[in-house]
Amino acid sequence: QVQLVESGGGSVEPGGSLKLSCALSRSIFTVYATGWYRQTPGKQRELVARITNSGVTNYAESVKDRFTISKDDANNMVYLQMRALQPEDTAVYYCNAVPLRAGSPDYWGQGTQVTVSS
Fold first, then answer.
1. What's the farthest any 2 CA atoms get from each other in the chain?
2. Tens digit of each residue's pLDDT (9 = 90 or more) over 14-29
């Protein structure tokens, strides 16, 4: 079992920046990949960015070139640097971890609210 704890959400004006952090309770190498999803009311949770243990990243088209995912292996942390935020980025952001064992359920954090508004 891996617990994920997010931090760093908040309110920002359009064009601003925020950095989300996710702390894993176990070594980051006990999971295959970590990432960030977001969800707004009435919509499905969507992948924002993901990074594998080997450092391969992928991003949603809507955030490419604005968001950067990174990890600190030594401290079992995953980050999402968000720049040029827009109102449509407003959502609850969830940290996610994909288990090494195929077919096992993903791990999720409790979510952190990001609000972009003037």
1. 44
2. 999 999 999 999 999 9
